[in-house]
Amino acid sequence: MEKKRNKKSLQGMVVSNKMDKTVVVTIQRSTRHPLYRKIVRRDKRYKAHDERNECRIGDTVKIMECRPLSRDKHFRVVQIVERAK
Fold this sequence. Notes:
The protein is mainly beta. The chain has one domain (9-82): CATH 2.40.50.140. Helix content is 0%, strand content 54%. It is built from no helices and 5 strands. A hairpin with a 5-residue loop joins strand 1 and strand 2. The termini are far apart.
């Protein structure tokens, strides 16, 4: 019997919603530079499935890992945490 693995859950901001049922979410994280010890902001963009096309640019959303839905879409929108103003 296989062990169920925990699915990755991330929170970020919607930067694009031009595709049908897909949004691009950017996740920002802060890391320390290995040599200079300065705090550096890194961001990564994920494509996430938005079934009802309800996300807008600037919304803060929570996304969760799921099975591959397309070539580069492996996340789905779980909830909209905060609407854009």
